[in-house]
Design goal:
Sortase, Chain: A; two-stranded antiparallel ribbon; 1 helix
Length: 178
């Protein structure tokens, strides 16, 4: 093989690797994003943000950080769960949206939740809020009905699933008193 052919092959491989790296960075920035800008519903109640989530049946105990949608991309915590800052807070009417990476040490275990299982969310004021799983769904990032604002208090948890994280695994829960 001539030196010219080797140089051309190296150039092509280099360009391919650059394109692959750029594609991965673009993909990674959009992990867990839904294809929507969230529209919050103004609240008149004084509530506090969630700071901790526990799901005993799957061994999940995570801190919860406030996150936002920036330029259409949903920010996400790398070490815990994320609460969409425009969504409701525990104890108020509306949709409380909490999400995280699909890793066994993070939000991956929510895939094993079944209807009727309990979820505890602790808010900044120290109050414990309890929820019961009523539905599990696997859907596309285009299906925004589950993360949209609601009239009644609803807890929506989600993570990625499927080939190249192309789907969303969603848990819908309703408040209960224990």
């Amino acid at each position: 093989m001539t030196q010219k052919k080797q140089g051309l092959i190296l150039l092509i491989v280099g360009l391919f690797l650059i394109a692959l790296s750029s594609g991965y960075r673009f993909y990674n920035a959009r992990i867990l994003s839904f294809k929507t800008d969230y529209v919050s519903v103004p609240s008149e109640k004084q509530t506090s943000n969630p700071i901790f989530i526990e799901i005993p049946s799957v061994g999940l105990k995570l801190s919860v950080e406030e996150s936002a949608i920036v330029n259409g991309v949903w920010e996400i915590s790398s070490k815990g769960a994320s609460h969409l800052n425009e969504s409701a807070d525990p104890g108020e009417s509306g949709n409380i949206v909490i999400y995280g990476h699909n890793k066994n040490s993070l939000f991956g275990p929510i895939r094993w939740l079944k209807e009727g299982e309990k979820i505890k969310v602790v808010s900044e004021d120290g109050r414990e809020h309890f929820y019961k799983v009523v539905k599990t769904i696997i859907t596309s990032p285009d299906d925004i009905q589950y993360v949209s604002p609601k009239d009644e208090e609803t807890l929506t948890l989600y993570t990625c699933t499927g080939f190249l994280d192309s789907k969303r695994h969603i848990i819908v829960a309703e408040p209960v008193n224990y």
